[in-house]
Amino acid sequence: MGAVGSSKRAVLEHLKREGPLTAPELAERLGVTTAAVRLSLTELDEQGLVAPSEPVATGSRGRPAARWQLTRSAQDMFPERHGELTLQLLEAIRQTVGEKGLDRVLLAREEHQVEAYRAASKKGSLRQRLRALAAARTSEGYMAEVTDDGGVLRLVEHHCPICSAAESCQGLCRSELSVFREVLGDDVEIEREEHLLAGARRCVYRVSPVSVRGSSSGGRGRTK
Questions:
Q1: For the chain: N or C, fewer Cβ within 10 A?
Q2: What is the pLDDT of residues 85-102, one digit of tens each?
Q3: CATH assignment of 6-77?
Q4: Does domain 83-217 have CATH number 3.40.50?
């Protein structure tokens, strides 16, 4: 994201994390004036990185406030790790050793991830371990965070740095879900509520102890 200054980069990151926002909403989150945000939005609009979406009625007189959202071009401002090379390697593996061989490669990757994530999040409560996992994922480009909605924990990933590869190889997504289960333990239930590859703007996983959800259904629920 080096093509824009820090103030405009902050605007882009908030729109990436939260979706369409008005200029006043952005100003409140960034702790700056609405005028400063509007200047950044104007410049980003001229660069083709943001665009106004549906207006929002404010309850006061005058024109409704516009919500601003990222354009497709703005997605290139966020890291896509070696996307073309990854796609080529996946196809080469598939052609060389077939789907079963590719599955074995993904399993080896999964085992490596489990080992790394466990080392980073092996201590503390579920909330603490989940936050450590989010930090590890963020370091890999997933823009991950943990939200707490009245005690309901969610792992939210606002960006997928391997999105192109995941579109070509669905096993990558299945592998990551298995990794989360292994890292967080058998006493934790994970349910995917939003999926970027299904058309959502992010991936969201609801995480809870088995004793709180699904204990009467005969064991751990499976992620959809």
A1: C
A2: 777 888 899 899 998 998
A3: 1.10.10.10
A4: no
pLDDT tens profile 122-138: 889 999 999 999 999 99
Q: Which residues are CB-contacts of 5 (< 8 A; sequence separation ≥ 6)? A: none
Residue 66's DSSP bridge partners are 55
- DSSP string across 141-200: T--EEEEEETTEEEEEE---TTHHHHHH-THHHHHHHHHHHHHH-TTEEEEEEE-GGGT-
CB-based contact 12:76 (threshold 8 Å): no
CB-based contact 162:194 (threshold 8 Å): no
Kindly report, as residue ranges, where domains of CATH 3.30.1380 are found in the chain: 83-217
> One-letter amino acid identity for 62?
G
